[in-house]
Amino acid sequence: MAHDVAAGPAKGKLVIRNLGLILSGELERPLLDGDAIIVVDGRIQAIGRAAELDLAGADLEIDAKGSAVSPGLIDSHCHPVFGDWTPRQNQLGWIEMGVNGGVTTLVSAGEVHLPGRPKDALGVKALAITAQRCFQNFRPAGAKVIAGAPVPELDFGREVYADIKASGIRHIGEIGLGTVAKGRDARRVTDWCRELGLESIMHTGGPSIAGSHFVDKDDVLEAQPDVVSHINGGPTSIAHADVRALCEKATGALEVVHNGNERSALVALEAAQEAGRLADLLIGTDAPAGSGVQPNGVLRMITLLSSLGGLKAELAFCLATGNIARRRSLDAGLIKAGMPADFVFLDKPQHSSGRDLLEAVSFGDIPGIGMVMIDGIVRTGRSRSTPPSHSAPVVLGH
Ligand SMILES: [Zn+2]
């Protein structure tokens, strides 16, 4: 079942009981009342108290054993290529391990690690379309990989972006990974994207690897992309004062990544809060990267922002779930009626000094994951990448 997209979404009624905590993914109301969730045909039907819900007639029943549940985590920034393989580190199975770290949706920022990747318009379009179509058909451990992110080059005219849009691509790859990097050139691209309804994202900071470009604060402010990719650098950061300036003046979403400058991520958190823009702050990993692939990368960012940044843990989870879903219009990231049943069951790790999940995270402990579900289908039991969770759900179904 692990790689079989035809298996999902699950048919029938799923009942989840004995939840200790329900994280919604929404900043305005990060914790929901209730201890049970009903899922029908892979989508959430109801959330509430078991005593008040109609739990009869379940095709599958899960006893959460007091675990918390979060919306499946979203990685707002990663670089898949093809299959569950990354040429960046010559590693197999990194996406499946990301599911073990609670990530159920991954958004490509460009398939740039493909060896010998094309840079001519036809080749770039072909690569993006192929990547997008392949990942629609291929879901490692059920993960939803939103791929097909063509990287802009200087010789591409508006017609290239029109073709990209017409072929069903939803967003471009990072401006700055190709020859378009300076503000004026980037602005032309973001204007075309906006006219055509393509989401634009822009690398921020020093080059990630030989061949990519430096993008500074002024380039970003001139282009005003829909997403300021890794405002904390990928991995080399712009100056802290410039991070602050972007948090005040950039109109797009502000993304912080695991493979960036951690100190700058904390500066961005503080500045975004001061600007009343916590809803614009998104978490990604920028994996695979020079530092490797980190299956727990999104969890580590949540823990970093909570423990060192002082952000309440229940709010930190929203940055990797509902914030991304809303700013990037994804069908994911919220525990809410009608949304896909993408769930991470988690708890404090065993022997944490925190009393519960939220306190453990605020103390800097990486949570333990007991189960991951995507589209109502159980995809992992106890995680192979996190420490063991204090509690873990069990499947009672028949
Ligand atoms: Zn980048």
SSE inventory with pairings:
Elements: E1 13-17, E2 21-23, E3 31-32, E4 36-40, E5 43-48, E6 60-63, E7 68-71, E8 73-78, E9 85-86, E10 91-92, H1 94-100, E11 103-108, H2 121-137, E12 144-146, H3 158-166, H4 183-196, E13 201-202, H5 217-223, E14 227-228, H6 240-249, E15 253-257, H7 262-274, E16 281-284, H8 297-307, H9 313-319, H10 322-327, E17 343-347, H11 357-362, E18 368-374, E19 377-380, E20 394-395
Parallel strand pairs: 1-6, 2-7, 8-11, 11-12, 13-14, 14-15, 15-16
Antiparallel strand pairs: 1-4, 2-3, 4-5, 6-20, 7-17, 9-10, 17-18, 18-19
Bound molecules: zinc ion (ZN).
Describe what this molecule looks like in 3D:
The protein has two domains: 5-70 and 334-395, Urease, subunit C, domain 1 (Roll); 73-295, Alpha-Beta Barrel (TIM Barrel), CATH 3.20.20. It has helices at 94-100, 121-137, 158-166, 183-196, 217-223, 240-249, 262-274, 297-307, 313-319, 322-327, 357-362; strands at 13-17, 21-23, 31-32, 36-40, 43-48, 60-63, 68-71, 73-78, 85-86, 91-92, 103-108, 144-146, 201-202, 227-228, 253-257, 281-284, 343-347, 368-374, 377-380, 394-395. With 398 residues, the chain is of the alpha/beta class. The strands form five sheets. Strands 3-2-7-17-18-19 form a six-stranded mixed β-sheet, with helices on one face. A five-stranded mixed β-sheet has the order 5-4-1-6-20, with no helix packed on it. A four-stranded parallel β-sheet has the order 13-14-15-16. The structure holds zinc ion. The site of zinc ion has 6 residues, from loops.
